[in-house]
Amino acid sequence: MSKKITILDIAKLSGVGKSTVSRFFNNGYVSEEVREKIQRVIDEHGYAPNLFARGIKTKNNKFIGVIVPCFDSTTTSTILMNLDTKLRGEGYIPLIINTNHDIELEKANLDNLWRLNVEGIIILATQITPEHKNFVKRTQLPTLFVGQICSNGYSIINNENEAGKKIGNKVLKANLKKILYIGVDEKDITVGVTRREAVFKILRKSPDIEITEIKSDFSLEKTEILVDEYLKNNSPDCIVSATDNMAFGAMKAIYRHGYKIPEDISILGFGGYKISDVVTPRLTTIKYNNEMTGKLAAETIIKLIRNEEVPKIQKIDYEFLDRESVK
């Protein structure tokens, strides 16, 4: 295989200076005669410019950084697919980085992308730290947070308050009294605080309701273990899970203890994953419009790059899927 030629090689073979070849690739002025010489060398040697290396040196390079906490989440993958399609359709190139839920890696990659001179950053955030806020203030780079609210930045979030109320009211109407709530760490403000408080606010309206809470880590596996331990000494009327994924873990533990759903224990979740319509019984849950979130995120970051006006906070609506997992 022949060695790939460089810009310097093209300059030598064309009989011109390296700066002239650079102007050629950057649409600067080059005489027609010289342009033909350079193009002839490119065609003969099959040269393809390194668009990434060239792009990061320019201001309007069309690169947008996208930071995600994981790749194995239904929510994340749905948002990513729609975001990617929309960005590419508008001529932008997403640079996707997975942090594997490592918040320190997430913060480091914000600076890494900034140094790469990307035009903007979209971050599917699990929490907002002072470092996130400082990054927005320090760099003035168009940055969009999806899933969390950054007080000095731009955010897209789900309508957690109304969705939580819907779940809480469903529990009240079903006349369920002994409730187990499966939550997550409060560092995740959206799920660990806002979603939880929206549900609790409704449940607390009834003086007869008894609420117990355990905290998991979003995983099916840990939730199954926690609920299995809880059911050894307790028998709730209802389990409300902060996510569908954790609800599936709870369902496994429920069946292991010989309980039936919903005859013995009702269960509800948040997420509306496709699998929630396949499990038996079908899970009563909140379905967020993750497709719309992805498209809106792409549209919003492009507007921010173009200095167009954008609301500080945009909310994505939901659909309540009232199925068979509640008595």
Automatic annotation (TrEMBL):
Q: Where is the HTH lacI-type domain?
A: 5-58
State if DNA-binding is listed as a keyword.
yes
One of the Pfam families matching this protein, by short name:
Peripla_BP_3
| Record has Hydrolase as a keyword | no
> Which PROSITE patterns does the entry mention?
HTH_LACI_2 (PS50932)
Question: Do you know which SMART domains this protein is assigned to?
Answer: HTH_LACI
**Tree of life domain:** Bacteria
Q: Which CDD domains match?
A: HTH_LacI, PBP1_TreR-like
Q: Which UniProt keywords apply?
A: DNA-binding, Transcription, Transcription regulation
Q: Entry's PANTHER family?
A: LACI-RELATED TRANSCRIPTIONAL REPRESSOR, TRANSCRIPTION REGULATOR, MEMBER OF GALR FAMILY
- Any idea what this protein is called? LacI family transcriptional regulator
Which organism is the protein's source? Fusobacterium mortiferum ATCC 9817
